[in-house]
Structures are given as structure tokens and as C-alpha cells.
Amino acid sequence: MLNADFKTHLESTLNTTLTEIRPLSGGDINNVYLLKTEEKHFVIKVNDAKRYPNMFDLEAKGLQELRQAESFQIPKVIQVGNFGTDSFLILEYIDAKPKHPKFAEIFGNSLAKMHQATAPFGFAEDNYIGSLPQYNTQKTDAASFYIEQRLLPQFEMASEQGYAFKNLDGFYNTITDLIPLEPASLIHGDLWGGNYIINEQGFPALIDPATCYAPREMDLAMMQLFGGFEAEIFNVYNEAFPLAEDWQSRIKLWQLYYILVHVNLFGGHYYNTAISILKIYS
């Protein structure tokens, strides 16, 4: 729980009186709290500033980039700051409600609109995927970006932990020919079922991004990795913003990045999953 000095600092920052501070679920990286005032509510995320340098500054920039697409609701950033050894990010609170009857249609169309925002592959700064660094040096094509900025750093990190991978050069040559020649899309970057909520209108709102401009199929692949998304979402998306031919055959290729992230965070059976994906495309 936030101590009295931290509470006083937040009241000064927000220029209001906090009537209640309540813990929320926040995963392994951050402590998350609901901040209640008489007028409105906020969400605050708190973590170790030294362990995760600039994480919240980078998340705030990613959220702002997503907001500019004007597709999904994205929580407004209220304040990024530090207190003692902690960093914090204060966000607009979105009160969760039941899904709208046309939720899947709204989600699919919103994702298609967001993905139509384009810029060079990469992002203005490196950021995070979970608690791991995510590299965003700009590249001119999808294959170079995915191999050099997504797969290579994760393979290197896994190798340093003792995980072995064979014939990666051959794998890279194979997938270079498989990746479609599409421009980069603005993607959420970590779009699993825990990173969207349902707002007061019953529409989807996105949270906790790993924002970048990247192959748009990456978001669709992550959505299918752990489930939680209706098939209609993908059908609506494909009608609104048609995908390249054989996109479904590349799902596991894009999922490899997220599997490698899990290898580096959790190890275990994720390594075997990574090896099985490599065999598919080698």
C-alpha cells in the first residue's frame, strides 16, 4: 500500500484530496491502485525506478501515439513522476462495463483504423515488452525490422541464459521471403486478452501497450496466442482492412517473438514451443 508521504505527494500532484486508495491487479511488474476523490477516480501504476528506468515515460509516449489514431479509447495520461525510489504513472480511470452487443464489430473496425496509421518501421525510442527492453531502431522493410529489432535481441538474451537454437541464419533467409511487403502499421504491440478493458459504453479500450510501427499481423498473432478474442473480430478486421494472402500461415511466425519474450521471462515449456515454431519455418 502507498504510504502516507506518497499519498500526500499525490494529493499535491493532483491538487485534490484522496478519499480512498485501493489495490488493483497489476501483474508482476507494477503495483496498481485505484485513487478515489470526490470528483473523479484515477489509476496509478508504481514500480521500482532503478529496476525499470523510464518505463512509465515510454509507456506514456506509447499511449499518446495510440490516442492520436482516434480508434480505440486509450486512457489519458495525467502525470508521470517519481517519489523516493519509485516511479509512477497516473492515468484516467476507465470504469469497466458489460460488452456492447456489437463489441466484436467495433473492436475489428477500431483495430483496422488504428493499423492504417503508418510511419517507418520502429518508433521514436526503444521501450519495453513486459519487463524486457524492446528495440525500435527504424528500418525500411518489415523483414529487417522483425529479424533485427524483434527476434535477434530475444534469441541473444535466451542464448545467454543457456537456451540453444540451431540454423538461425537459414531460418532468417526463409522468413524474409514469407513476410509480406506491407508498410508499417501502428500496433499495440502486446495485445493479449488482459490488455483491453470494456468502457462505460461497452466498447473496447486498450491499456499497457508496447507501441511501435510494425507488421500489423503481429497484433493479430498476439490476439490468438492466448485466446480471449471472438472470431468475428478477425472477420470484421479483414473486411475493413484486407490482410495479405495466406496471413494465417504466418501467425506462428509472429507469435515467435512473444514466445521468446516468455522464454526469457519464464523459461520452461516456452522454449519447446519456440523450437517447434522454428521447425515450421526452417
UniProtKB/TrEMBL annotation:
Protein source organism: Leeuwenhoekiella blandensis (strain CECT 7118 / CCUG 51940 / KCTC 22103 / MED217)
Keyword vocabulary terms for this entry: Kinase, Transferase
Source species, domain of life: Bacteria
Gene3D superfamilies: 3.90.1200.10, Phosphorylase Kinase, domain 1
Family assignment from sequence similarity: Belongs to the fructosamine kinase family.
Residues annotated as domain Protein kinase: 18-282
GO molecular function annotations of the record: ATP binding; protein kinase activity
Biological classification of the source: Bacteria, Pseudomonadati, Bacteroidota, Flavobacteriia, Flavobacteriales
Alphabetized Pfam families for the sequence: Fructosamin_kin
UniProt name for this protein: Protein kinase domain-containing protein
